[in-house]
Design brief:
about 220 residues, alpha+beta, seven-stranded mixed sheet, two-stranded antiparallel sheet, 9 strands
């Protein structure tokens, strides 16, 4: 079996915080420790189907508090990412705590993200299972590119470039979609969308109960 030069390079398996390797990252991020749990919006609510507005004020206590709350809400709901409109705020912002296919953990937030996908001639689409905290209890196979770059800012207005592969690339694409007013349901056939909504109706109350129990376990 041949190994390409790219595959043979050593991989730094330390977690990535805001795109940079760090020696360690706690299971519950510092943001979540400061945050409060917010209600997660559900597909069908108008805020999920309209494009979000750009953030124009940086370094504010309000923006920091929103990010803190989004991190805790994401953890309570067992998510890998969460967009601001999923907690009822129509701003271009998402948070993430997501592994890639090499098991490297990526943790951070991104404000006003712009997605940069590979050239279509070099693009590799992967069909894989995908769920959404705003479609509770449902999951379907969705095609996504196996690599993605997102450019944006942190909460203080500093530029960020976050690159993802595998499952983390899927997360970056999924959350950016939210900020344009789309969920993964919009990428499904009518038949698969109907199936996903059926799954949600059958399982949503169980999912809500699990989230409430986890929040209570965290004292929130």
């Amino acid at each position: 079996m041949s190994v390409s030069h790219e595959q043979s390079r050593p991989v730094d398996r330390r977690p990535r915080l805001q795109g940079r390797p760090v020696d360690s990252c706690p299971a519950l991020s510092p943001e979540a420790e400061r945050g409060s749990v917010r209600r997660v919006t559900v597909v069908g609510e108008e805020i999920l189907s309209r494009p979000c507005q750009e953030v124009t004020e940086f370094g504010s206590a309000g923006l920091s508090a929103l990010i803190d709350d989004m991190f805790l809400t994401m953890y309570v709901a067992d998510g890998a990412g969460l967009a601001a409109n999923q907690v009822g705020v129509g701003l271009r912002l998402f948070v993430y705590d997501c592994p890639d296919d090499q098991g490297i953990r990526h943790v951070g937030h991104l404000v006003n993200p712009v997605l940069d996908l590979p050239d279509p001639r070099n693009r590799r689409l992967i069909d894989d299972f995908e769920g959404c905290l705003s479609v509770p209890g449902a999951g379907m196979t969705v095609p996504r590119t196996d690599r993605a770059v997102v450019r944006g800012l942190d909460k203080d207005g500093n530029p960020l470039v976050i690159e993802g592969t595998g499952y983390f690339a899927r997360c970056l694409q999924h959350e950016t979609d939210h900020l344009f007013g789309h969920t993964y349901l919009d990428r499904l056939s009518k038949r698969d969308r109907k199936d996903a909504l059926r799954q949600m109706e059958e399982r949503r109350e169980e999912v809500f109960a699990l989230r409430a129990a986890k929040a209570a376990g965290l004292g929130r």
